[in-house]
Amino acid sequence: MKTNFKILLTALIVVFFFNCKNNKETSEETTTTDATSTEKQGQAFIEDDGSTPNILQIAIGSKDHTTLVAAVQAASLENALVNAGPLMVFAPTNEAFAALPAGTVENLLKPENKATLANILLNHVTPGNYSKDFLKKFKKLGQANNQSVKVEVVGDDVFVGGAKIIASVSAGNGIVHVVDKVILPEN
């Protein structure tokens, strides 16, 4: 019996060291691969099927926000929209972007206009997680680009920076208020 225990213990030790050696080799391979990878990194690129969708995932899943998603990607703001928040994003529809003067969107998507595009997009983001009805209590909202936008109530409608909230979708890290207009910064 004592001999069987020694054999079993020896086998377990061998298996343990063998697994540790394999894990070390796998870890080294992964590190080397990650260091040379050109894929985008950050929270925005982690796949998670079990959580409530975050703001970026909601936008990506919306057929009415393809222009917004393209703009967010061109401005490299994906990771900002998956921030733990809470965040409120006033998300212009494709129609809202199409209403801008001809060529505006195409021009903003150029790499040399990345800072201007980021400023415009950050004008659509504010901290908090407030419903449309709760927003009726505000006169102004401070935006992520250090500017503020006016909040107006007309009947049951709420306008933020002149854009009407037409729908709201809860997100895991805040709320997406779908708006009918691009909220341009004052400067």
- According to CATH, the fold-level topology of the largest domain is FAS1 domain
The structural class is alpha+beta
Strand content: 15-25%
- Average pLDDT: 81
Query: What spatial order of strands do you see in the largest sheet?
Result: 2-1-7-6-5-4-3
**Overall 3D form:** globular
* Termini separation: 84 Å
Provide a descriptive summary of the structure in words.
The protein is an alpha+beta fold. The chain contains seven helices and seven strands.
What topology does this entry show?
Blueprint lengths: L1 H35 L18 H6 L5 H9 L12 E6 L1 H5 L5 H5 L5 H9 L2 E3 L4 H4 L4 E3 L5 E7 L2 E4 L2 E9 L2 E6 L8
Parallel strand pairs: 1-7
Antiparallel strand pairs: 1-2, 3-4, 4-5, 5-6, 6-7
Features:
alpha+beta; 7 strands; FAS1 domain; seven-stranded mixed β-sheet; 187 residues
Give a quick rundown of the structure.
With 187 residues, the protein is an alpha+beta fold. It has helices at 2-36, 55-60, 66-74, 94-98, 104-108, 114-122, 132-135; strands at residues 87-92, 125-127, 140-142, 148-154, 157-160, 163-171, 174-179.
